[in-house]
């Protein structure tokens, strides 16, 4: 379980989060949607402790981490895997070395099983074992995303953060990634938080969808509830309408 209460975050004069309340339930996939600059990626970084809120409180597994020091946060961060928007693979390392990068740093005692970890993780993301010897430059965009996901799960995290997982992919490969997000959650019983602009992806992978606007939560519900929402802000976003801007009251909590 992850919970943010009344979280504010500014960068200079730019107020990104303005009292955000949001909760991620154990074992679900919560997808955060909203326009560019509304604080979605900042929310991920606050959840994992990469950024500290200016105000508000943050819990991970019923433990408040808001004021943790670096050492205490490092222990919490071991619970997380992260799939970056561009996969963020190290060009000088092989696929196997990329996958084992987090294991080497977070669970060095597991390195004796390195080959088996690589084979297992590649299998979970639908790649053949021989891919392990390739460099990132030899991979397609979709393969890079899958290797990034393999790296994210290699140290057996409790949570996976997905930052725009389908960006830059064609519709077919986007659907492959969507299927992997669902499959990883079911096979590993893992809790997932997804940030995306891709509503087709959001509807497919999510148990619940939360919309953030101007740094606050405006609506949360199942994919069906979001699709049938009467909130004009939500309707404008999910239909891709250019009409607006629309101002609406926000919800104070999930």
Class by alpha and beta content: alpha/beta
Number of helices, where a helix is a run of at least 4 consecutive DSSP H or I residues: 10
Q: In percent terms, what proportion of residues is strand?
A: 15-25%
Helix share of residues? 25-40%
On the 0 to 100 scale, the average pLDDT is 89
Q: Could you characterize the architecture of this molecule?
A:
By secondary structure, the protein is α/β, with parallel strands linked by helices. The chain has a domain at 1-79 and 158-165 and 191-254: Rossmann fold, CATH 3.40.50. Helices cover 35% and strands 24% of the residues. A six-stranded mixed β-sheet has the order 6-7-8-3-9-10, with helices on both faces. A four-stranded antiparallel β-sheet has the order 2-1-4-5, covered by helices on one side. Helix 5 (114-124) crosses helix 6 (141-153). Residues 246-250 have low confidence and may be disordered.
Properties at a glance:
single chain, 254 residues, alpha/beta, Rossmann fold, six-stranded mixed β-sheet, four-stranded antiparallel β-sheet, 10 helices, 10 strands, 35% helix, globular
């Amino acid at each position: 379980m992850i919970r943010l209460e009344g979280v504010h975050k500014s960068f200079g004069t730019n107020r990104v989060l303005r009292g955000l309340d949001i909760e991620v339930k154990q074992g679900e996939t919560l997808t955060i949607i909203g326009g560019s600059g509304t604080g979605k990626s900042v929310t991920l970084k606050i959840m994992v402790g990469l950024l500290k809120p200016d105000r508000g409180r943050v819990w991970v597994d019923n433990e408040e981490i808001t004021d943790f020091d670096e050492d205490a946060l490092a222990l919490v961060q071991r619970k997380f895997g992260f799939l970056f928007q561009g996969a963020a693979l190290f060009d000088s390392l092989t696929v196997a070395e990329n996958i084992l990068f987090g294991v080497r740093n977070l669970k060095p005692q597991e390195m004796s099983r390195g080959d088996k970890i690589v084979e297992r993780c590649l299998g979970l993301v639908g790649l053949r074992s021989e891919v392990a010897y390739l460099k990132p430059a030899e991979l397609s965009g979709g393969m890079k995303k899958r290797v990034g996901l393999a790296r994210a799960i290699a140290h057996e995290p409790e949570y996976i953060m997905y930052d725009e997982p389908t960006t830059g992919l064609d519709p077919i490969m986007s659907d492959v990634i969507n299927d992997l997000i669902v499959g990883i959650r079911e096979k590993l019983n893992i809790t997932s938080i997804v940030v995306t602009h891709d509503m087709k992806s959001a509807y497919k992978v999510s148990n619940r969808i939360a919309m953030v606007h101007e740094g606050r939560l405006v609506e949360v519900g199942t994919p069906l509830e979001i699709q049938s929402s009467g909130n004009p802000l939500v309707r404008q976003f999910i239909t891709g309408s250019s009409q607006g801007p629309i101002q609406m009251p926000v919800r104070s909590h999930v």
